[in-house]
Structure formats: C-alpha cells, structure tokens
Amino acid sequence: MEKSDVKDLVRHRYGTIARDGGNSGCCAPASPCCGSGEAPPAEQMSRRMGYSDAEIAAAPSGANLGLGCGNPQGIAGLKPGETVVDLGSGAGFDCFLAARQVGPQGRVIGVDMTHEMLGKARGNVAKMGAANIEFRLGEIEHLPVADNTVDVVISNCVVNLSPDKPQVFREAFRVLKRGGRIAISDVVNVVPLPDRLAADRELLCGCVTGAASSGDIERWLSDAGFIDVRVEINPESREFIKDWAPGSGIESFVLSAMITGLKP
To answer: Which domains occur in the chain, in start order?
Structure first.
C-alpha cells in the first residue's frame, strides 16, 4: 500500500470509532477493524493494559475508548511543570492523565490526524475546563510543535500505524529538549507474520501488520539520536492481544512493549 493509502485507511477507521463507538482495544471483536461481536467495556480493557482504577476514574466521560496496548503513564515519570506531547492522542485519555501529573504549571499537547477524535477530545477539555491541555490537528510524522520545546513524548499503540516510523522518531527527537525523553507503549513483531495475516488490510488499523521488530525500533531510535534506548516486551500482553482478532493467532506474532529513550 502507498503511504497515503495507509493513512487514509487508519484515518477512516479511527474516525468511525470516534463517531460511532463500539470499540475496545486496538482491534477488539466489536471494532470496525475486525468484524462483529461484543467488545469488553473500555474500562475493562484499560485495566488489562495496566491502568489503575484511579486513573480510569480520573478521565472525563468519553475520553477513554479502550484503545491502546499498555500504559505509557507508568514509564514516563512525569513531573510537575513539564511539557508533554502525546502522539495520536485520540479522545484524550492519556492527555488528561498526564495533565494531572504535570499540574497547572505544566502543559500537555495532544496531536491527532483524525478530525472526529479531535472533536471528542476538545469537547472533553471544555467539559473539564482543563486549561493546561490543548489538541492540535497533525500527523505524527510532521508534528505541529516547535523544536526543543518538549520534556516528554508519550504515545499508546499509535506509532505502529505509521507508514514511516523512522520519521516519527526523528520528529520526536526534534521537538524534545536536551535531556528530554520518549516513553511509549506500542506493539512489536516477535515472529514474522504469515502471508495470510500480513496481507490482511483490516489488521493494519488493528495494530498488527504495522508492528516492527524490537531490533528495528531500537535502530530507528538510535539513528534519530536517542541514547539509553530500551524496548521491554510484555509477554503477558498476549492475553488481551488475542482478543483483538479472536481465532487468528495474532498473539503469537505481536506483543506489547514499553519503549524508552533519552535525548542527550
């Protein structure tokens, strides 16, 4: 697929999720990606990804769509006064959690290319009256953020959707200050996908066929300029990944990982 076709497919799928709902997890049974069935509640999916009940309760209604494959809040180490950028911020769940940690002196910027998601996120900001959060329309390969202005870049299961992952990491490096850090949750490919899965267009938006190997991710981050790069795979994620496309066996090929690096 051409890069533009990939983006159009992803934009359409997640726009549908934002508009119509019916999804929990990157590719749960009731998502538009993977056919019909009854999806678990978003709160249940978030608990399986590592979010606490307190975190789930802290976000405004409608911000948590159950999307993701982990909890980047757990590795970001956010501090009061920091500036955070969330790549592919969706309806704003992680942005609202980050805003609580950085406090009123901090700032959180969510970037998403899907108009419907931005509409939901901005509506949630209005409901909460959160003055330290803003959402910007943009692609994660070309962030609408100035150079050297950000302390932390976070993301939850979005980089795998990009057709140009090295450029995503270069952009993250560009916007970070010296000493800034990247802390993302994403899926990695642990065993090469068989043809029957690799050719499945529906599994692209489902955070499966776009997954890169941990070796590639480490190399791309290092090439972008990051140091102390780590990709820590979570074998237990197999238990919820198998529900993204039941019966397909995708949990044997992709797993969730926590990915970190520092800008020297």
So the answer is: 3-262 (3.40.50.150)
* Closest CA relative to residue 90, chosen from 157, 33, 30: 157
pTM of the model: 0.90
Chain-centre distance of CA 25, in angstroms?
A: 11
Tokens describing residue 161: 């959707």
**Euclidean distance between CA atoms 23 and 131, whole angstroms:** 29
Predicted local distance difference test score (pLDDT) of residue 127: 83
C-alpha neighbours within 13 Å on the C-beta side of residue 42: 20
What pLDDT was estimated at residue 21?
Answer: 65
Provide the pLDDT for residue 220: 98
Percent helix, strand, coil in the chain (nearest 5)? Answer: 40, 20, 40
User: Backbone phi, then psi, for 78, in 5-degree steps?
Assistant: -65, 145
Dihedral sign from CA coordinates of 216, 229, 77, 255: positive
CA 175 – CA 190 distance, rounded (Å):
30
Weakly modelled stretches of the chain, pLDDT under 50: 24-25, 27-37
